Amino acid sequence: GSSSIPNFFHIMKRQFTETEWGVIKSMSNEWMQLDMFHRHWALKESFLKAVGVGIGFNLQRIEFSVSPLQLEIGKVYKETKMLLDGDKEEEWLFEETRLDDCHHVAVALGKQEGFGQKHSDVCSMEPNQPQFTLLTFEDLVASGIPVTPEDSAYWDNFCSKQESPVKQNSHSR
């Protein structure tokens, strides 16, 4: 919803450390900076989901040192390191993949109660084995079962609606 990438970065300033902003802004143009922003965001989100905390967590407590700077599409990387409250976290491994020119995936793997495996067990997959599979909407719903019988009148009513909502006059009742 921002008018520009610099304005968006200004709004998001508190979500990253100065070091992370330095890496983000070191990219050669605004689109590459935005791409690096999304990579850092995916890493932070992966950690928050892994530990089960919400976005109320102070994101400046975690800092990522991304490596390498450029990711090849389809290749899995495990070099990125994380600092938590300024201390290097050796117990956490982050797998990163660039799915295409616009999408990053980051998975946080760490020692947790009930996790039941060490990193070596999790990361013992063959190096060239694909670890992510792109699924279409059809793939996701192929085995779906309707929870209620189909109501053709409901569908007809849905199809008769306009494509976009009409702005209502605030004075009309």
In words, what does this structure look like?
Keywords: Transferase. It is an enzyme of class 2 (transferase). This is L-aminoadipate-semialdehyde dehydrogenase-phosphopantetheinyl transferase. It is a single chain. With 173 residues, the protein is α+β, with helices and mostly antiparallel strands. The protein is extended, with a radius of gyration of 22 Å. Strand 5 and strand 6 form a beta hairpin. The protein is 31% helix and 15% strand. Helix 2 runs antiparallel to helix 3. The strands form 2 sheets. Strands 1-3-4 form a 3-stranded antiparallel β-sheet, with helices on one face. Strands 2-5-6 form a 3-stranded antiparallel β-sheet.
Shape: extended
**What is the structural class?**
alpha+beta
Low-confidence stretches: 113-127
- Quaternary state of this entry equals single chain
Strand order of the largest sheet: 1-3-4
CATH-derived topology of the domain at 5-111 and 128-141: Ribosomal Protein L22, Chain A
The whole-number mean of residue pLDDT values reads: 84
- The CATH superfamily of the domain at 5-111 and 128-141 appears as 4'-phosphopantetheinyl transferase domain
Instruction: Give me the Rg, rounded.
Output: 22 Å
| Number of helical regions | 6
Question: What would the keywords be for this entry?
Answer:
single chain; 173 residues; alpha+beta; Ribosomal Protein L22, Chain A; 3-stranded antiparallel beta sheet
Detail the topology: elements first, then pairings.
Blueprint lengths: L4 H7 L6 H8 L4 H22 L10 E4 L10 E2 L3 E4 L2 E2 L3 E7 L5 E7 L8 H4 L14 H5 L10 H8 L14
Antiparallel strand pairs: 1-3, 2-5, 3-4, 5-6
Helix pairs in contact: 2-3
